[in-house]
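Reopening: structure tokens for the FE2/S2 (inorganic) cluster complex, inputs below.
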Amino acid sequence: MISLTVNGAKRSVRSSPDTPLLYVLRNELGVMTPKFGCGLAQCGACSVLLGDEEIRACITPIAAVEGKEVTTVDGLPARWARQKKLSAAVAKGKLHPVQEAWIEEQVPQCGICQFGMMIKVTELLEANPKPTDAEIKTALTTSGPSPHLCRCGSYAAILDGAHRAAQLMRGEA
Ligand code: FES
Ligand code: FES
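Re-run output (same inputs, fresh job):
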């Protein structure tokens, strides 16, 4: 058995140590927001946060995350509540600002890439609360093993969503 924390909950899994984290999340733990796009670290659809860092779950063996904390888009609301020390009453039903921004800006088209995009933007905004266009583009294109790809071409909306999320995270209306 391999133990890890997924979205704040301790989980123990039976998969063999070389099983990709993506398969464990989706097939064993039922966490479906990370998507299988390429399986080769070439698209970003499977991205999750390992601690504060975005990783590609499709190429990360489960053994590499033993004892560590994995966050998917499902866990972003609780992550935000913890970071902002929101009471349970205030946090109830509240989304993470990145999720709110994605809805406000109507970012997704087909949606398959968007969970990875939101994870990458969360990673960026936690480190850089007021990024420029160039910094957002750099984060989404050159900071990982490959660019985050959107075959629907929603890149302009993703940029708008990232800026809106940054505003919301800074507490601006
Ligand atoms: S499915 Fe992991 S990067 Fe494409
Ligand atoms: S919204 Fe369809 S691949 Fe990005």
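The pocket of FE2/S2 (inorganic) cluster (ligand 1) is lined by residues 36-39, 41-46, 56, 58 (CB under 6 Å). Residues 74-169 form a domain with the DNA polymerase; domain 1 fold (CATH 1.10.150.120). Marking as resolved unless the reporter disagrees.
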